[in-house]
Write a structure and sequence with these properties.
heterodimer, A: mainly alpha, B: 189 residues, mainly alpha, Arc Repressor Mutant, subunit A, globular
Chain lengths: 157, 189
C-alpha cells in the first residue's frame, strides 16, 4: 500500500510546490501594477468604505425615524419619544385601534337601542290590544272584519 | 463585527489579486476595475458589519457573482450591438504594454543587467499570466482561489458552489496544463 501511496503523495506535493511557485510569480508580478490601476483600486476601496459608513449610519437613525413616522397617529394619545421603538410601535398600534373600537362600540349600542325600541313598539301594540274593550279574538273573525269595512265606508258616504 | 480599519486592510490585501483574477477572466482591464469596484461596494454595503474572519469567503463569492453579472450584461449587449462591438479595439493589454516594458531602461551596464533580470522576470510573469488566462474558467478559478488566495479545498468548494472533489480535479487539471504549457515554453517558474 505504502509503495503505491508514496509516489502519488509525492506527485501531489510536487504539484502543490509547482502551484505555489506559479502563484508566487503571480504575486510578485501583481505587486508592480501600473500606478493608474493602483490608484483606481484605491479610489474604489475608499468609495466602498464611504458606503459602509452610510450603510451603518441609517441603522443607527432607524429607531428615531420610526418613532417620528408613527408620531402622526400617536398624536391622538401621547407621543412616546423614549427611543424604545418596540414599545412605541405597540402603543401606536393600540392608539390606532381606538377609533375602530369606538366605531364597533357605537354600532353595538345602536343595534341594542333599535332592538329595544322595536320591542317597545310591539309591547305598546300588545298592551293597546289587550286593554281595549274589543277582545283580540274579534280580529280573527271574518264577520267582524266585514263589519269594520262597512262601518268604515258608512261615515264616508 | 469588522472595524473600518479591518475592512480597509482586508480590501487592500485582496484588491490587486482580485483585479488580476478579473482581468484573466474578462480580458479587459477597464471591465476588471469595474468588477472589483462593484464587488468592494457590495461587500462594504451589505456585509460591512460581518466579522473580519468571514470577509474573505464573502468577498470571493461576491467577486465571482460580479464577474458572472458582467458576462451576462456583456452577452445581452453583444446580442443587441454585435456589429458595434466589432469596432472596439481588443488591445489595451496587448502590444503597447509589452513594448514599454521591453524598452524601459537599458542605459548603462549595471542597470542593463538588472533591467535584463527585470525583463526576464516580467516575461516569465507574462507567460504565466497568458497560460493562466488560457485555462478553462472553472479550472482557473479553482486554481487561483486554492493557491493564490490560499483558501483550503472546502472553502474553495463553498465559494465555487461545487464539491470538494471537483475542486481537487479542477486544480489538478489546471496544474497539469500549466506545467505542460510552461515546460513547452522552457519556463521554470
Amino acid at each position: 500500500m505504502n509503495t503505491v501511496q508514496t509516489p502519488s503523495s509525492q506527485a501531489e506535493a510536487a504539484a502543490e510546490r509547482f502551484a505555489l511557485r506559479v502563484t508566487a510569480r503571480l504575486s510578485s508580478g501583481t505587486d508592480e501594477l501600473p500606478y493608474d490601476i493602483t490608484e483606481r483600486l484605491r479610489a474604489s476601496r475608499m468609495q466602498a468604505l464611504a458606503k459602509r459608513k452610510k450603510a451603518v449610519a441609517p441603522a443607527r437613525l432607524a429607531a428615531p425615524a420610526v418613532v417620528h413616522a408613527g408620531g402622526g397617529s400617536a398624536a391622538l394619545g401621547r407621543g412616546s419619544h423614549d427611543g424604545n421603538s418596540e414599545g412605541g410601535s405597540w402603543w401606536n398600534a393600540l392608539v390606532s385601534a381606538v377609533p375602530l373600537l369606538a366605531l364597533m362600540a357605537g354600532l353595538v349600542m345602536i343595534n341594542i337601542a333599535q332592538d329595544e325600541s322595536s320591542v317597545h313598539d310591539v309591547a305598546e301594540v300588545d298592551a293597546a290590544l289587550l286593554t281595549d274593550d274589543l277582545p283580540p279574538a274579534a280580529y280573527a273573525d271574518p264577520g267582524f272584519v266585514q263589519f269594520l269595512k262597512t262601518s268604515a265606508q258608512a261615515p264616508s258616504r | 463585527m469588522a472595524t473600518e480599519q479591518e475592512l480597509s486592510d482586508f480590501l487592500k490585501s485582496v484588491e490587486k489579486r482580485a483585479f488580476k483574477r478579473s482581468v484573466y477572466h474578462v480580458r479587459n482591464e477597464e471591465a476588471a476595475l469595474d468588477i472589483v469596484q462593484d464587488s468592494m461596494l457590495k461587500l462594504a454595503e451589505h456585509y460591512g458589519d460581518k466579522p473580519a474572519a468571514e470577509l474573505p469567503m464573502l468577498y470571493q463569492r461576491i467577486l465571482s457573482n460580479c464577474t458572472l453579472d458582467w458576462f451576462r450584461r456583456q452577452k445581452t449587449r453583444n446580442a443587441l450591438f454585435s456589429s458595434m462591438s466589432d469596432f472596439e479595439g481588443p488591445g489595451e493589454d496587448g502590444m503597447d504594454f509589452d513594448l514599454l516594458e521591453a524598452y524601459s531602461g537599458p542605459e548603462d551596464g549595471e542597470r542593463a543587467e538588472s533591467a535584463e533580470d527585470l525583463t526576464r522576470r516580467a516575461q516569465i510573469f507574462r507567460s504565466i499570466e497568458a497560460e493562466i488566462a488560457e485555462l478553462p474558467p472553472r479550472q482557473r478559478e479553482a486554481f487561483l482561489m486554492r493557491y493564490w488566495e490560499e483558501m483550503d479545498v472546502a472553502e474553495t468548494a463553498a465559494a465555487m458552489g461545487c464539491s470538494e472533489g471537483s475542486v481537487k480535479t479542477h486544480c489538478f487539471r489546471a496544474i497539469h496544463t500549466l506545467s505542460k504549457a510552461l515546460k513547452a515554453k522552457g519556463i521554470e517558474p
